[in-house]
């Protein structure tokens, strides 16, 4: 049965080779374009959803004059001490409805990391002095070591898998745990190794340093809401308690308010100052989605028309098959 069907299909293809080839090429090309469009849409809309609590994670921003910033300044700016920085983030995490809060800064300049006699150039350093909440709020795929080592020990570091592999190319990455590496001229103890940060994350890092103080005028602040607490409720709490969180803003004439951004919305619905990565464009998502549906419509229309035209020319053969008792 199958063999006869294949023979019939092959004979039909030979008799209408050009027509059938054009029909199949049109169909395959359309399906390929659809596949690429769907893959793009799936990737763009999946940003930051790999975090287990992504629906409860928000980034804190601030409006000064008429401009929105993704970096929240410290009360004493560059003169802020480590305890002042921790106090500011603690005031946020202690607000009703907030489960936890963390902050960090990033450094995109090239730095050196050294281990034994090997030296590598690395980029995308992340520095935090709230390591416990950093590991609790965000979801990182642990390979070896523990996050507990990271937040219990100052001057400790989390390495990504690719960096660890380059440091011990001829051995096991696990041997790096509790070893000392030198980064940008300072010594750090390796606390953990994680899988590389997924590409569909709105921020990336190659190493995450635990330092006592963030050497910058502000930080990127993230918080996790308690289950069921709305964004507007937490935003209201922050703005009502700003005198306690950062007293310097009370007399700042440029200060307008703080705002929250759901972490899943940052890639496609945010384009403010000091973004950690160039954001996407939601208009492109709509445009490519429309284009994919348009190509699908053309694909179905063309294939139906070509097939109908081909079968119309076979009406005589179909009639003879019916006469001799062929089934539908």
Give a quick summary of the entry.
With 328 residues, the chain is of the alpha+beta class. The protein has helices at 2-15, 17-44, 82-93, 131-137, 147-152, 161-167, 231-240, 242-245, 266-269, 282-312, 315-323, and strands at residues 57-64, 67-69, 72-73, 98-107, 111-115, 118-122, 125-128, 142-145, 156-160, 180-183, 186-194, 207-210, 218-225, 255-262. It has eleven helices and 14 strands.
Question: Which terms would index this structure?
Answer:
alpha+beta; 40% helix; 14-stranded mixed β-sheet; 24% strand; 11 helices; 328 residues
Radius of gyration: 29 Å
Number of helices: 11
N- and C-termini, Cα separation? 15 Å
Structural class: alpha+beta
Biggest sheet, in brief?
A: 14 strands, mixed
Which ranges are low-confidence, i.e. pLDDT below 50, for 5 or more consecutive residues? none
Estimated helix fraction: 40-55%
| Number of DSSP strand runs | 14
SSE arrangement, N to C: HHEEEHEEEEHEHEHEEEEHHEHHH
* Basic shape: elongated
Strand content: 15-25%
The whole-number mean of residue pLDDT values reads 91
What does this structure look like?
The protein has 328 residues and is an alpha+beta fold. The protein contains eleven helices and 14 strands.
């Amino acid at each position: 049965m199958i063999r006869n069907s294949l023979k019939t299909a092959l004979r039909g293809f030979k008799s209408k080779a050009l027509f059938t080839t054009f029909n199949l090429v049109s169909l395959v090309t359309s399906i390929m374009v659809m596949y690429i469009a769907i893959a793009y849409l799936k990737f763009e809309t999946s940003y930051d959803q790999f975090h287990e609590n992504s629906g409860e994670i928000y980034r804190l921003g601030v409006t000064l004059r008429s401009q929105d910033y993704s970096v929240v300044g410290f009360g004493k700016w560059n003169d802020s001490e480590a305890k002042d920085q921790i106090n500011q983030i603690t005031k946020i995490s202690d607000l009703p409805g907030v489960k936890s809060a963390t902050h960090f800064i990033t450094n995109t300049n090239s730095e050196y990391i050294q281990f034994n006699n090997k030296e590598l150039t690395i980029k995308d350093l992340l520095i935090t002095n709230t390591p416990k909440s950093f590991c609790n709020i965000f979801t990182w795929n642990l390979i070896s070591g523990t996050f507990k080592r990271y937040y219990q020990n100052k001057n400790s570091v989390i390495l990504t898998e690719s960096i660890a592999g380059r440091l011990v190319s001829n051995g096991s990455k696990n041997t790096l745990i509790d070893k000392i590496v030198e980064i940008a001229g300072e010594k750090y103890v390796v606390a953990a190794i994680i899988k590389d940060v997924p590409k569909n994350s709105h921020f990336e890092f190659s190493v995450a340093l635990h330092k006592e103080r963030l050497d910058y005028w502000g930080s990127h602040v993230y918080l996790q809401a308690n289950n069921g607490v709305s964004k507007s409720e937490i935003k209201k709490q922050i703005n009502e308690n700003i005198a306690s969180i950062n007293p310097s803003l009370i007399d700042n004439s440029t200060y307008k308010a703080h705002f929250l951004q759901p972490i899943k919305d940052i890639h496609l619905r945010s384009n403010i100052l000091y973004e950690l990565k160039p954001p996407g464009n939601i208009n492109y998502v709509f445009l490519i989605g429309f284009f994919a549906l348009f190509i699908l419509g053309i694909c179905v229309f063309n294939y139906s028309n070509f097939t109908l035209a081909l079968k119309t020319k076979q009406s005589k053969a179909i009639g003879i098959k019916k006469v001799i008792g062929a089934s539908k």
